């Protein structure tokens, strides 16, 4: 593989923001361009048969822009190996197919991301892979759900959309004691707020569409691990099945990641101000935010997260109709799926992102509204939420 994969100016001695800007992203050796070029090339000239210049041959296997992104993502998660994919679901599919075979079983959160649940429930079940949904905030429940055939414990933390907190360190212990592996979907926290590998996780997954890209302009996914055999399996399917991001997508994701530290600070600050305004509001029956001391996962979140992030869910005292009206009335918060961008978004999970969970164990309450708090002016966001509820 290319020397470009060596994060020379973003080594582990450097701080997070430095690595976000420099890891894998040395100035272009030929021109000095400070940004990694968008290598819009599907193939690479060979100096003789099988003699590649920098290890590049065909862009499904590797592309220098993608290599730079992969080195950056690995560095941000404190991991040795990073792989970038065309979407978070492509990364999820690759992780599952690398780690599970027919007859195997996995444990998943009972409020998993709807797309993750759909893939496991509708596709993997057809190939003889079984799953058990549990509350991943309950370590004993996870331990009890592990069977001899369990190969993977899959968690999100905070979970989407209920913002439950899984204790990564405790679950890594439980998984390893049982001879299984722990995968953490770190999309909601981002590597700035939480680094699961350091807490014992075997694999970290991202939908880079969300906070890492951060500008709602690109879809992507990533897998990071310290385990060379797992990374090899991921690389095999990345090339073998081909769900790769193009070089422009890799560039956009890398460009977004450069400001991740600043953005996550502001997302967290804005979310805290909105949580303050929503707490005790007569229209709201529950505020779900791990930064609240009364949140059942607060202690664990405070231990494993730098701050509490930009996602808030609320339940409306007036039920489903009040939830739909809240979604309709915001002016700065845009009614849309997705999350993690600079702009604030609002959505109704039961009818939108989590519609696929209807009638299942993962069904979400219909009085629930999810806010992805952006980085607009704090007071404007608070005023928007207040007017929408009045
Ligand atoms: C969006 C999301 C995914 C899926 O990622 P895509 O990029 O949309 O394919 C997976 N997990 C979580 C927690 C997500 O929010």
TrEMBL record:
Coiled coil: none annotated. Keywords: Pyridoxal phosphate. The keyword Transmembrane helix does not apply. Its cofactor is pyridoxal 5'-phosphate. InterPro entries: Cys/Met-Metab_PyrdxlP-dep_enz (IPR000277), Cys_met_metab_PP (IPR054542), PyrdxlP-dep_Trfase (IPR015424), PyrdxlP-dep_Trfase_major (IPR015421), PyrdxlP-dep_Trfase_small (IPR015422). The keyword DNA repair does not apply. PROSITE patterns: CYS_MET_METAB_PP (PS00868). PANTHER family: CYSTATHIONINE GAMMA-LYASE, TRANS-SULFURATION ENZYME FAMILY MEMBER. Belongs to the trans-sulfuration enzymes family. This is Cystathionine gamma-synthase. It comes from Aeromicrobium halocynthiae.
């Amino acid at each position: 593989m290319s020397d470009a994969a060596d994060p020379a100016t973003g080594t582990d001695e450097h701080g997070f923001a430095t690595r976000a800007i420099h890891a894998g992203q040395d100035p272009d050796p030929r021109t000095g361009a400070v940004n990694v070029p968008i290598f819009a090339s599907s193939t690479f000239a060979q100096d003789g048969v099988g003699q590649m210049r920098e290890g590049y041959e065909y862009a499904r296997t590797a592309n220098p822009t993608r290599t730079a992104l992969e080195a950056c993502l690995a560095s941000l998660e404190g991991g040795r190996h990073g792989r970038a994919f065309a979407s978070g679901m492509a990364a999820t599919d690759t992780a599952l197919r690398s780690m599970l075979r027919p007859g195997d079983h996995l444990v998943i959160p009972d409020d998993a991301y709807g797309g993750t649940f759909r893939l496991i429930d509708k596709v993997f079940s057809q190939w003889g892979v079984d799953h058990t949904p549990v509350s991943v905030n309950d370590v004993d429940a996870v331990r009890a759900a592990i069977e001899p055939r369990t190969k993977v414990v899959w968690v999100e933390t905070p979970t989407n959309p209920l913002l439950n907190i899984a204790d990564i360190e405790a679950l890594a212990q439980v998984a390893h004691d049982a001879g299984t592996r722990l995968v953490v979907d770190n999309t909601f926290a981002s590597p700035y707020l939480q680094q699961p590998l350091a807490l014992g996780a075997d694999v970290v997954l991202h939908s880079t569409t969300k906070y890492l890209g951060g500008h709602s302009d690109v879809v992507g996914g990533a897998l990071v691990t310290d385990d060379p055999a797992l990374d090899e399996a991921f690389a095999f399917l990345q090339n073998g099945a081909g769900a790769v991001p193009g070089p422009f997508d890799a560039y956009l994701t890398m460009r977004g990641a450069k400001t991740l530290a600043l953005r996550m600070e502001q997302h967290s600050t804005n979310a805290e101000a909105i949580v303050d305004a929503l707490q005790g509001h007569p229209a709201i029956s529950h505020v779900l935010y791990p930064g609240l001391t009364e949140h059942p996962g607060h202690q664990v979140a405070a231990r494993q997260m730098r701050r509490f992030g930009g996602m808030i869910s609320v339940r409306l005292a007036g039920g489903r109709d009040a939830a739909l009206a809240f979604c309709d009335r915001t002016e700065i918060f845009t009614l849309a799926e997705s999350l993690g961008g600079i702009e604030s978004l609002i959505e109704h999970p039961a009818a939108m992102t989590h519609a696929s969970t209807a009638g299942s164990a993962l069904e979400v309450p219909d009085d629930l509204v999810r806010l992805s708090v952006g980085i607009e002016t704090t007071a404007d966001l608070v005023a928007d939420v207040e007017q929408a509820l009045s």
